[in-house]
Design a protein that fits this description.
The protein is mainly β. It is globular and about 55 Å long.
């Protein structure tokens, strides 16, 4: 499999497959494909695996792509203005925010992951359910805004604004902590809690969340008034 990621803030991942190769994506991710590409839906892994994917924010059925009679290309796009990131899952398991999964090679397993601490689920901005990418091969995730990839050293801590943590390697400890004192919580614009990520491992931070984008557009939306 060969691929390129093109565009600036409305990106495509362009996946080129040989005749004997296959690629999977979530439903609705395909933007275009060559005429020799065969696409079919499948409940990969059976009903329970499909149900867990659905609960984690992906689709019950995955789309499977395989070219006929030579090389073919399929292009996938995100649902909001933002970036697409390639992840080599063979180098380690990743935990991602719900609905970030775009597509992957068939050797990548998409599953749901539960928050280990109730406090992180209630106040961390990601909810109780996350997505887990394991196995081997390349996977692609999409998120709103620009993305910053940071590699944390053992014991190194990053405090990230709520919901801005897109993904992190499984070796990274995820928790929540107080944003500061009462004055900071009330007037700092970050709320009571921030996400705490402790290394070692890579983390991915987005510059804007979908909620931020929606909030910024509200003043410009037509109204009956």
């Amino acid at each position: 499999m060969k691929y390129t990621i093109t565009g600036d803030n409305l990106q495509f991942v362009n996946v080129e497959l040989a005749a004997d190769e296959e690629f999977h994506s979530q439903a609705g991710a395909m933007a275009y494909m060559t005429g020799n590409m065969r696409m079919e839906s499948a409940m990969e892994g059976g009903f329970m695996s499909g149900l867990k994917r659905s609960i984690s924010g992906s689709s019950l059925f995955l789309l499977k792509y395989k070219p006929q009679g030579g090389t073919g290309v399929v292009g996938l796009g995100g649902r909001v203005p933002g970036k697409i990131l390639d992840i080599d899952v063979g180098k380690g398991t990743w935990i991602c925010q719900s609905s970030s999964y775009l597509g992957a090679q068939p050797t990548v397993k998409l599953d749901m992951a539960l928050q280990k601490k109730l406090s992180a689920a209630l106040f961390g901005g990601e909810g109780l359910i996350l997505q887990k990418l394991s196995g081997s091969g390349m996977a692609f995730i999409a998120a709103c805004g620009d993305l910053n990839v940071v590699e944390l050293k053992p014991g190194e801590v990053y405090k990230v604004s709520t919901s801005n943590a897109v993904a992190w390697e499984e070796s990274v400890k995820y928790d929540i902590s107080a944003a500061g004192g009462i004055k900071t919580a009330m007037f700092g614009g970050e709320g009571l809690f921030v996400t705490t990520l402790t290394g070692p491992g890579k983390i991915v931070i987005q510059s804007m969340t979908l909620a931020d984008l929606a909030q910024a557009l509200i003043p410009y939306l037509p109204s009956n008034n």
